[in-house]
Amino acid sequence: MTGRTRNALLAAVSAPGFSRNLRRNSSADRRCEPEVTLQDLRHEYESAIALTNRSYRLQENAAVYTQGRALTHHPDALHRLGRLADRYERGVGWLGWRYASTAAVLGTSILDRVVGGRPALTAAAVTELCEEPARGQLRDALSIPCTDLLIAREPAFRDRHEEDRRELLRALEGVIECAAELGDGVPTEAAALGAGRLTEFDRLGTDPLYEGVLERLLRYSDQFPNEISWYLKQSRAGALPDQIRT
Fold first, then answer.
1. Does 219 have pLDDT greater than 90?
2. Distance from C-alpha of 118 to C-alpha of 106, rounded to nearest angstrom
């Protein structure tokens, strides 16, 4: 791999929208919003879940000690607080989904090109991949085995990540099955579901589709900058499996 190719790939890794340096371009004026990392989103999502759970506990406690009383201002206030916490958790969750799914597709695309020795992505291609992917794009990215991507790692390391990838792919398929049952304008045909973005299928009054998948996807997507860097480091050192003479 030439120095020019490595530099182009590393530039793509730090391009807007990628894992630790994600940015979103406004469709109105294309100005970059502040950088948001997957780790920040994962931590904020965990905090939002804790906040929601705490509000539920407060409501349950208040319902017990105000039972039979005429004034219900306290439990009413806590109920409103719980609704606010629910909305915040859902908002953070969908924000995390957009960034994590984008990072998974772009990260996989770059790493797959690196290990395959193919030319770097163009700036236009990187910009396009910085948008939230369609469900089919994410499925295709998650369908590439870690044994093909993490070739610079030890077999045990690859096997662990391969198991995570398979579980994540199965979970994603389950999400789509749930989406097909929502109704309310959500398509039921496989082709239409695959062409749409998961955020487009969100419907208030239902559990968010990302539940049970988002935390796994955030962890999975966050690995790609390190894995690309590790591969390039091992390649330069002549330490890849196909570079080591036996």
1. yes
2. 15
